[in-house]
């Protein structure tokens, strides 16, 4: 058991160099709300922890191409305080704001939430539904990756040694668009999602759905982008039949496990319920902009 | 916020008792100054940690500490070899009893580990991180054995046996083969068969509850310091430092006089801090290292190795006439004790039907060992489980009979003179008064919203007295130092001081209360059994009366008149009428100032075994709202009603009622232990052991009923435990009211509720199709 | 093993400490600086008993590494009262008897103070959700929520009068 080293580099290049040097024993510290719990419990014993919060780029929110560039370590509280971002992508922001308590909100970030690679991460279904991408910095420079391509399984990512997520890009969107994220937890707060659903959609002037994305969390080893569920909405006026089809498609996509947080049956059943509820909220939002 | 219903007590005007006075430890607690168990530091202090079993059940083949001993900074290691064998001998602890043969094995595993988290070694090192490293260097070889977690399974003849020498007590003849059933108990009177024969309607139901943890926010912590001459000091977060001293002395084979124990501020206990875990280990390590050793549990250790209360299986049978008179009541209770015997099945069996006056009643209980942590007392130990089953069955009975559930209870309520289901006749009690208050409460008549339902349930708890000391030192300026021996877990320094101030007739601010250490006072039983305001209050009142007697004698001496001619009035001594002489009245301060001339310092001392603790009854009303598509049950409105005898400090009485209700809400809805196939706890943290958070609950309205307890100078009854009893049944009854489904298994978590709702929908669809 | 030398500001005072890289800010506050008002209830961010302000944000000190405090400002329960004057929230907790054992109280006070600094007119629901990360097992939260709402009301009154 070696002692852990702590570094807080001030440039992305330095961070990449440290992470590359640290290899499999290196861990990125963003908000720390998952990493410190894992450290304390002995679940991870890194030889190196690289705190990326001294990198200005990972702490900023900036307008970009009609959408927003959001630093990987921006906290949930900061996202919630950004009125323009919240107006454009309310579902994404609320997914980040649902992570943990007020205290956790002061620290937890989308970058950490994504790269912790928990199947139950709240922001991931919302980001997938938003068709968000992220900028990954690494020894070979930078690349832009779809959010849904980052997680490959529980606790596993597609990031190569030395790579880390610097920021997210949330795209511009047409008028009459809305998104929403809902999760089920047994209490009102402080739980990990038993099921999470992100829905993003666009309506035409007549109120018909022209585009939709549906993503489910906590029902499979990684968050799922469920095309069949989206197709159940596109071309409809989100009537009862469409909502029934949405619930069926969402439930059919679930490949959950029984664990301490929920059963297969419960997750599958509630995925459909929440997909409908999230779609209704997204549609209400789309109608009002 | 709270209303108060006056009972039949005629009270003279009180200046302090019954007010919402400031608590003496308040400022320390809002500023972070108060020192809890883990807040103590000693010079040259080491940090202790415990190595725990990863197995639910295994024989310990060998323990090799040589690798850890070699690490620099490791100063002491103890294992089973450092603790003497103990005979089977019982000792009272709160409402429960403990056996030293088992206690030494729970503190440090000997032949076997009996649950995941069972201690197998402890180390002391110069830093917490070194201590952690040392644990990793200890090698333990285990022979893993089959395990059993469920009490009903553990009763089967082919179940894995935890103890080779455990034979069921309380059955005749004594069994010839050992089993996991430690004990059978039976209570009741009359003839239940005769009673059921007289019933128009008989209901029989079975219930299952899961173990739940006390959930105190402060993990166990202590700091032990043993010097080269064997003198030991221990600072510890505990509900009973005298018990800690006694247990540590026994487990270590030391004389009690060697150990001085000081109670730190305690960050919650609810019964769970009446047990020793780290304390003997810290003293044993310190004795080896001759340095102070601080130990504190992680939250994970708290969940894996301390508390909880039993999970149980309960069968209830109740018969009644058409007009709602209960003719017979019968229950069988199977409680799991954890790894060692001593579940609260006995108080459970005694309390199950206690709220009711019954001619024919019987309860039979079984104490069953399983491969889980040994249970500890948890707020009215045993009663919430038993009364959940009884109060749920009663609700169904009321439904079947077409009676209002409060009315059914009123028709059968125990009253003064009723023979209790556990034996003695009741004195003045408030069961009926709480039911009447519930009936009259606006909550009971308020309209319900969609998907909402309302439930009620009652609860009973014995309350206890016990050995209690108090010392009152009158300072030279007439102020008073008040010392009691019951750790203050929720504001009792305030309530006890208020009773002392009332008796002495001096302002409350002139009394400074402290909790004395084990050398400063005589033996005082634990803070438990809702006994502190009752017993320490009684002792403090008697100490004050002792002082009044002494002050009268001093004045008599100063005035040179007979003591009978000196009166005590409003905190002053005065001549008793014109014949006694012409002297200006003297205050306590006046007498204290000249006490050197009249015999020396004035000290009031009392050592009692407080008797006559009055039982407390409560009735709760709850509205729930159910999400039909996710199965989530929310608490929409809650009212707790309870007989406090006399609410000395109404805010803290309300606080007990509110806190107990919310613990009961957690028990009812979400709290449970989840084990994997290997018997390892999967949710040893606040993330997945889901206690209610602030946003889960509404305001908890309270009504304090006051039916004075004649045995107490101010009429006090204990109030701390009763409020955790009614919530589980009240919520289950409300859920039935909302959706027509009866839940007999706790917790009523969303997966269970949604499954039942879906099955109900399928049944209804099938019926519609027919 | 070399410890890290960290320079930071705690309750307005420039502070230096040595820490192991894996020590949390809570470990440092309690064990190195003996600021024991912040409590360890869980060490996993689930109970809020170690609530502190870090650069003006409410956080759990158990989820911050001690080393992260370098160059930042930390405010703990020990810095809430000014001299002998208790903070309004502290006073209201006493007035409403919003504590029993008191071990969660420092965390609640730090968290409630942070809420009222952003919003002096929170609804009961807003108070409850803001404080959802602070566990209390004694009080059932009732008197805590009342204390915070009353503190907010007094704050508004003072502002209106000012």
Query: What is the CA-CA span between the terminal residues of chain C?
Result: 56 Å
Domain unit count of chain C: 2
Residues in β-strands, percent of chain C: 15-25%
Relative helix content of chain C: 25-40%
Strand order of the largest sheet of chain C: 2-1-5-3-4
Which word captures the global form of chain A? Answer: globular
* Number of strand elements of chain A: 14
CATH architecture of the largest domain in chain C: Roll
Q: Helix fraction of chain A?
A: 25-40%
Computed CA radius of gyration of chain C, to the nearest angstrom? 16 Å
Structure in words:
The complex is a heterotrimer of chains A (289), B (770) and C (162). Chain A is α+β, with helices and mostly antiparallel strands and 289 residues long. Chain A contains eleven helices and 14 strands. In chain A, strand 13 and strand 14 form a beta hairpin. In chain A, helix 5 runs antiparallel to helix 8, helix 9 runs antiparallel to helix 10 (240-253) and helix 10 crosses helix 11. Chain B is of the alpha+beta class. Among the domains of chain B are: 432-459 and 614-770, Aldehyde Oxidoreductase, domain 4, CATH 3.30.365; 466-610, Aldehyde oxidase/xanthine dehydrogenase, molybdopterin binding domain (Aldehyde Oxidoreductase, domain 4). The longest helix of chain B is centred in the last third of the chain and has 28 residues, at 532-559. Mean pLDDT of chain B is 96; it is low at 1-10. Chain C has helices spanning 25-32, 88-95, 105-118, 124-130, 142-161, and strands at residues 4-10, 13-19, 51-54, 57-60, 73-75. In chain C, helix 2 (88-95) crosses helix 5 (142-161). The termini of chain C are far apart. The mean pLDDT of chain C is 96.
Notable traits:
heterotrimer, B: 770 residues, alpha+beta, Aldehyde Oxidoreductase, domain 4, 7-stranded mixed β-sheet, 25% strand, globular, disordered N terminus, C: 162 residues, Ubiquitin-like (UB roll), DNA polymerase, domain 1, 2 domains, 5-stranded mixed β-sheet, 35% helix, 15% strand
Note the topology.
The complex is a heterotrimer of chains A (289), B (770) and C (162).
Chain A: E1 5-7, H1 12-22, E2 26-29, H2 35-41, E3 48-51, E4 61-64, E5 67-71, H3 76-80, H4 83-88, H5 90-97, H6 102-105, H7 110-115, H8 123-129, E6 133-138, E7 141-146, E8 151-153, E9 156-157, E10 164-170, E11 177-184, E12 195-203, E13 209-217, E14 224-225, H9 227-233, H10 240-253, H11 264-287
Parallel strand pairs in A: 1-3, 2-3
Antiparallel strand pairs in A: 4-5, 5-10, 6-7, 6-10, 8-9, 11-12, 12-13, 13-14
Chain B: E1 2-6, H1 26-31, E2 46-52, E3 58-64, H2 66-69, E4 74-78, E5 90-93, E6 96-99, H3 100-107, E7 112-113, E8 119-125, H4 128-136, E9 139-144, H5 151-154, E10 181-189, H6 192-197, E11 201-209, E12 221-226, E13 232-236, H7 241-252, E14 259-263, H8 279-289, E15 293-296, H9 299-305, E16 312-320, E17 326-338, H10 345-351, E18 361-369, H11 383-401, H12 405-412, H13 431-440, H14 442-445, E19 452-461, E20 466-474, E21 480-484, H15 492-504, E22 511-515, H16 532-559, E23 566-569, E24 572-575, E25 586-587, H17 588-593, E26 602-610, E27 616-626, E28 633-643, H18 650-669, E29 700-706, H19 727-739, H20 750-769
Parallel strand pairs in B: 1-29, 2-15, 13-14, 17-18, 21-22, 28-29
Antiparallel strand pairs in B: 2-8, 3-7, 3-9, 4-8, 5-6, 10-18, 11-16, 12-13, 12-15, 16-17, 19-27, 20-21, 20-26, 23-24, 24-25, 27-28
Chain C: E1 4-10, E2 13-19, H1 25-32, E3 51-54, E4 57-60, E5 73-75, H2 88-95, H3 105-118, H4 124-130, H5 142-161
Parallel strand pairs in C: 1-5
Antiparallel strand pairs in C: 1-2, 3-4, 3-5
Helix pairs in contact in C: 2-5
């Amino acid at each position: 058991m070696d002692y852990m080293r702590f570094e807080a580099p001030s440039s992305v290049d330095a961070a990449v160099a440290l992470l590359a040097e640290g290899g499999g024993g290196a861990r990125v510290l963003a908000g720390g709300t998952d990493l410190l719990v894992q450290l304390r419990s002995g679940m991870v014993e890194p030889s190196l922890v690289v705190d990326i919060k001294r990198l200005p780029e990972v702490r900023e929110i900036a307008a970009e191409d009609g959408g927003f560039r959001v630093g990987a370590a921006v906290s949930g509280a900061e996202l919630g305080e950004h009125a323009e971002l919240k107006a454009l992508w309310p579902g994404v922001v609320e997914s980040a704001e649902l992570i943990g308590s007020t205290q956790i909100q002061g620290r937890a970030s989308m970058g950490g939430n994504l790269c912790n690679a928990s199947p139950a991460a709240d922001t991931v279904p919302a980001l997938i539904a938003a068709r968000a991408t992220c900028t990954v910095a690494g020894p070979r420079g930078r690349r832009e990756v779809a959010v849904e391509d980052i997680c490959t399984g529980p606790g596993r990512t597609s990031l190569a040694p030395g790579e880390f997520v610097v920021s997210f890009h949330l795209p511009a969107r047409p008028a009459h668009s809305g998104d929403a994220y809902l999760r089920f937890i047994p209490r009102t707060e402080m739980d990990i999602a038993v099921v999470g659903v992100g829905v993003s959609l666009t309506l035409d002037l007549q109120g018909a759905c022209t585009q939709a994305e549906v993503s489910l969390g906590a029902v499979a080893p990684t968050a799922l982008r469920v095309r069949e569920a989206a197709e159940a909405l596109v071309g409809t006026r989100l009537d009862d039949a469409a909502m029934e089809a949405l619930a069926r498609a969402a439930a059919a996509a679930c490949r959950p496990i029984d664990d301490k947080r929920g059963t297969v049956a419960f997750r599958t059943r509630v995925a459909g319920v929440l997909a409908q509820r999230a779609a209704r909220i997204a549609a209400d939002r789309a109608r009002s902009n | 916020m709270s209303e108060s219903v006056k009972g039949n007590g005629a009270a003279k005007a009180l200046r302090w008792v019954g007010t919402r006075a400031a608590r003496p430890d308040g400022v320390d607690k809002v500023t972070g100054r108060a020192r809890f168990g883990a807040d103590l530091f000693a010079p040259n202090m080491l940090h202790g940690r415990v190595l725990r079993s990863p197995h639910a059940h295994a024989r310990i083949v060998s323990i090799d500490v040589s690798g850890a001993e070699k690490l620099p900074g490791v100063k002491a290691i103890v294992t089973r070899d450092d603790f003497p064998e103990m005979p089977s001998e019982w000792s009272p602890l709160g409402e429960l009893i403990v056996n030293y043969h088992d206690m030494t094995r729970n503190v440090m595993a000997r032949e076997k580990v009996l649950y995941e988290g069972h201690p197998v070694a402890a180390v002391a090192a110069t830093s917490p991180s070194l201590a952690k490293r040392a644990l990793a260097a200890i090698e333990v070889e285990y022979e893993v054995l089959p395990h059993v977690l469920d009490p009903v399974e553990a009763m089967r003849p082919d179940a894995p046996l935890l103890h080779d020498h455990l034979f069921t007590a309380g059955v005749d003849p004594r069994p010839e083969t050992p089993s996991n059933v430690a004990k059978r108990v039976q209570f009741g009177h009359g003839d239940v068969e005769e009673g059921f024969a007289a019933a128009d309607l008989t209901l029989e139901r079975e219930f299952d509850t899961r173990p739940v943890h006390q959930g105190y926010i402060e993990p166990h912590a202590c700091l032990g310091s043993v010097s080269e001459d064997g003198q030991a000091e221990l600072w510890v977060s505990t509900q009973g430092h005298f018990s800690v001293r006694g247990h540590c002395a026994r487990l270590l084979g030391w004389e009690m006089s060697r150990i001085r124990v000081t109670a730190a501020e305690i960050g919650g206990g609810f019964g769970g801090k009446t047990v020793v875990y780290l304390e003997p280990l810290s003293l044993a390590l310190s004795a080896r290292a001759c340095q102070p050793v601080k130990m504190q549990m992680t939250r994970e250790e708290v969940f894996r190795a301390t508390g909880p209360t039993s999970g149980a299986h309960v069968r209830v049978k109740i018969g009644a006439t058409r007009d709602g008179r209960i003719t017979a009541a019968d229950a069988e209770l199977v409680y799991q004790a954890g790894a060692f015997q001593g579940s609260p099945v006995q108080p459970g069996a005694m309390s199950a039907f206690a709220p009711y006056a019954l001619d024919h009643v019987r309860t039979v209980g079984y104490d069953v060992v399983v491969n889980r942590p040994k249970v500890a007392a948890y707020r009215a130990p045993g009663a919430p489980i038993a009364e959940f089953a009884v109060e749920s069955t009663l609700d169904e009975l009321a439904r079947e009979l077409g009676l209002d559930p409060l009315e059914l209870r009123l028709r059968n309520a125990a009253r003064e003179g009723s023979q209790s289901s556990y034996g003695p006749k009741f004195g003045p009690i408030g069961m009926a008064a709480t039911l009447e208050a519930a009936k009259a409460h606006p909550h009971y008549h308020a309209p319900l919203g969609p998907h909402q339902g309302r439930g009620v349930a009652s609860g009973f708890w014995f309350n206890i007295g016990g050995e209690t000391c108090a010392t009152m030192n009158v300072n030279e300026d007439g102020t008073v130092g008040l010392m009691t021996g019951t750790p203050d877990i929720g504001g009792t320094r305030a309530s006890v001081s208020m009773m002392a101030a009332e008796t002495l007739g001096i302002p409350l601010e002139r009394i400074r209360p402290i909790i004395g250490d084990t050398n400063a006072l005589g033996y005082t039983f634990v803070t438990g059994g809702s006994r502190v305001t009752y017993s320490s209050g009684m002792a403090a009142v008697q100490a004050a009366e002792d002082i009044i007697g002494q002050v009268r004698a001093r004045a008599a001496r100063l005035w040179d008149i007979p003591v009978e001619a000196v009166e005590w009035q409003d905190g002053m001594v005065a001549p008793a009428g014109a014949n006694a002489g012409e002297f200006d009245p003297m205050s306590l301060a006046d007498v204290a100032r000249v006490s050197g001339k009249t015999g020396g310092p004035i000290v009031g001392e009392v050592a009692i075994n407080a008797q006559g603790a009055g039982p407390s009854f409560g009735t709760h009303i709850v509205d729930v709202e159910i999400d039909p598509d996710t199965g989530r049950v929310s608490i929409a409105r809650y009212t707790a009603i309870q007989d406090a005898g006399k609410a000395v400090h109404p805010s803290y009485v309300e606080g007990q009622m509110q806190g107990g209700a919310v613990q009961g809400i957690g028990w009812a809805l979400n709290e449970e232990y989840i084990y994997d196939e290997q018997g390892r706890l999967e949710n040893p943290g606040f993330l997945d052991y889901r206690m209610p958070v602030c946003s889960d609950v509404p305001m908890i309205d309270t009504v304090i009923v006051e039916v004075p307890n004649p045995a107490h100078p101010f009429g006090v009854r204990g109030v701390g435990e009763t409020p955790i009893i009614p919530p589980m049944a009240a919520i289950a009854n409300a859920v039935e009211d909302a959706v027509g489904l009866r839940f007999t298994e706790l917790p009523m978590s969303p997966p269970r509720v949604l499954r039942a709702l879906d099955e109900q929908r399928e049944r209804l669809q099938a019926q519609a199709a027919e | 093993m070399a410890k890290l030398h960290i320079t930071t500001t705690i309750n307005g005072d420039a502070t230096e400490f040595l820490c192991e890289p894996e020590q949390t800010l809570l470990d440092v506050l309690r064990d190195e600086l003996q600021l024991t008002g912040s409590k360890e209830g869980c060490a996993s961010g689930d109970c809020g008993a170690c609530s502190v302000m870090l650069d003006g944000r409410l956080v759990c000190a158990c989820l911050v590494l001690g080393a992260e405090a370098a160059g930042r400002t930390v405010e703990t329960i020990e810095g809430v009262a000014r001299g002998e004057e208790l903070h309004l929230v502290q006073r209201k907790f006493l007035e409403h008897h919003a504590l029993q054992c008191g071990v969660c109280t420092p965390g609640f006070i730090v968290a409630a103070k942070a809420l009222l600094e952003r919003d002096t007119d929170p609804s009961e629901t807003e108070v409850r959700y803001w404080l959802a990360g602070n566990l209390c097992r004694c009080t059932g939260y009732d008197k805590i929520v009342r204390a915070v709402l009353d503190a907010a009301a007094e704050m508004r009154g003072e502002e209106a009068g000012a």
